[in-house]
Protein 1
Amino acid sequence: MLERIELEAFLILAEELHFGRTAERLHVTTGRISQTIRKLERRVGGPLFERNSRKVTLTALGEHLRDDLRPAYDQIAAGLAQAVETTRGVRIKGVVRVGFSGAWCGNLLVKAADLFRVRHPDSVVEIQEIQLLDPLGRMRAGEVDLQLTEFPIVEPDIVQGPLMFAEPRGLLVPAGHPFAAKDSVSMEDLADTTLVTIASEHIPEYWMDYYFPRRTPSGRPIPQGPATRFWPEVLVHVSMGVGVSTVAMRAQDFHSRPGLAFVPLHDAPPIDYGFLWPRTGLNPVASTYLDIVHELATPIR
């Protein structure tokens, strides 16, 4: 029989494909995760993961084991949650509408929604992508109850909740750009290239300054390139050699393609992600869903 640490370490690593993030979610050391996975591999008699210096992937055996274990694990978790609700006399009903920016944010919301629906079958979760063109418009129009997005957001009618997680910041550059050959670049290097930005009257100026600065930390001007309205436009401009763009390094897991390279910014602060909600407050359904996202999210590094 599997020990709990073996089960959770395997399933979380199968999801994250990253030993460090798995260790953080389980609040143990990376060495403990490695030791646990090796022990499990000895037990099943074969490798569950392929590891190298760049990435971790599931083997065919690992995929089969994940697909066998995941439903049972979720069912156990849901059963415990239902038991707690029965004891407390709680039954959540209603609809929660959730927005996101960034595919990794969307993945977390969908995963939380799956668990939420198991625990609260009388409730509905509606998830929608929020476009860069108008990042706060749907919330202000009452079309979303919660939104997982990049901070900072400092607005009088919107609550910026606690941080959920943080991602290292980098540059998206053309594959043939001199920066692509470097292990990392500096914020000062932005003065030596052209920055592809975003154009929208609905984006707060302080947010633009944070993600698309006009000057380096030492005060050197950063050449401003095309102002786009949608993320696919950024990818096109960069791949065609028009300029570079700031980006979360996690984006390389979702947007890698020929003609693009992702380079870490070694002196830039990470990109913080958290929830927003109207200052008028959260309904009970949204609050319960938010608790589940907290349960599943990778802790802040």
Protein 2
Amino acid sequence: MSTAPTAPFDLIVVDSLLTDDERLLRDTVADFATRELAPNIAGWYEDGTLPVSDLAPKLGDLGVLGMHLEGYGCAGASATEYGLACMEIEAVDSGLRSLVSVQGSLAMFAIHHWGSEEQKEHYLPGMAAGSTVGCFGLTEPDAGSDPANMRTRATRDGDDWVLTGTKMWITNAPVADVAVVWARTEDGYAGFIVDTDTEGFSAPEITRKLSLRASVTGEIVLDGCRVPDARRLPHVHSLRGPLTCLNEARYGIIFGALGAARDALSTALGYVSTRQVFDSPLSSFQLTQAKLADMAVELDKSYLLALQLGRLKDAGELAPHQISVGKLNSTRVALEITRECRTLLGASGITLEYSPLRHANNLESVLTYEGTAEMHQLTIGQALTGEQAFRNRS
């Protein structure tokens, strides 16, 4: 006996937990993603490129760049709405969500939260519109999980600062118009807004990637790059600055990774319903249904967690360790689901005709960036025990 299939999120009627405005925004972003992004993503991924200069203005028109920020051309959307937008964009590809996250939750948020009024008025409207592309320089070749050990230095010279050092794995860097760069100073740490045409600034592209291929990634090389003090973020002098920005980006991943998992599961459901094996659809076999059931349950539970964290953030009550709970869970669950979905597609699953393996390859990076799984485990462990275990004790 056959019955009408049920979509994964419909199993527990998750839509009933959203407001009308949240559903409208989600559907608007989903429609844009279906029309403008999905038809091109396999080609972008195969070519290892992304037309950022073309896409950024379209994303600006959609209102998703810095959408959770107030003023300066930003939409002022709720945290939950921002999460839902991330989910719909990453349902197409993690590289596309990375473009949105780096622009809004890292580069724009840093200026909005830590910048002067002049800096906000100068940079944020163009970034919200997508006419100005930003990047965020924190990670270094030898300083990823431990940013306190960054080697990039900023030395005061009259009314200027001279920046020297190298940043690594920087999304958008080769195509960015502006970079928010973090450096050590004599007094601690500082953030600088660097126009990328400044002498001494270069951003060579990182190629031959096996993950996030539909994303532009590069280094930032600062060779005596001179920046006026007026471009130093004035309201932060410690690592609290970049870490606050990272939490904003991690929050978007909580929802975004589930979009990739949902798309992979939907793709697998469509495939097994038509693939004939031993004169029956693959979907009619018990082992297939067991896999599908387990994945749907894990996806739905993770979505409920994401929504709870969104509500906490909208109430101003979301703690850093709670963001770690969400990021650790969503990336783990999404990676497991996309891998399992690939198995249901058999040999077809290794081609770009289907999305699960592309999503899985991307999620290998998403699991790592904005804090590795291990770092989030230790953050949660510290919350549970009160003991800090980030450094070895002799």
Protein 3
Amino acid sequence: MRQTSCLSDVAIVVVDFEPWEEGFTFEVADSVTVEDHFRHQLPGFHAALVEGIREELAEKVTDVPLALAVVLRGIRVHETDSRDESFRMAGRVAVREALLRLNGPPPRPERRRARPS
């Protein structure tokens, strides 16, 4: 159980990264729903999500031009613990996960072998 005075982050999103025309576009699928009392916060959460996606792409994908559509398929918001920064970080994590699935894990460093005594 968390105390309401303790800052925590909750941002649960499902996004698809799809090939697209040159550039970057963000779409919200028609099937995405959220409880009515959170609707007024969605534009800010969407903007923060896009900001995080753009930031991470700018850092991780530097050798090819972007031709990408990001489609938001699902979103969950917590009454107390969801905020713009939560969704910005979710965007960054989504890019990391997509790149991991695309490229596989980064190479692991080789372990040093113990020298024979």
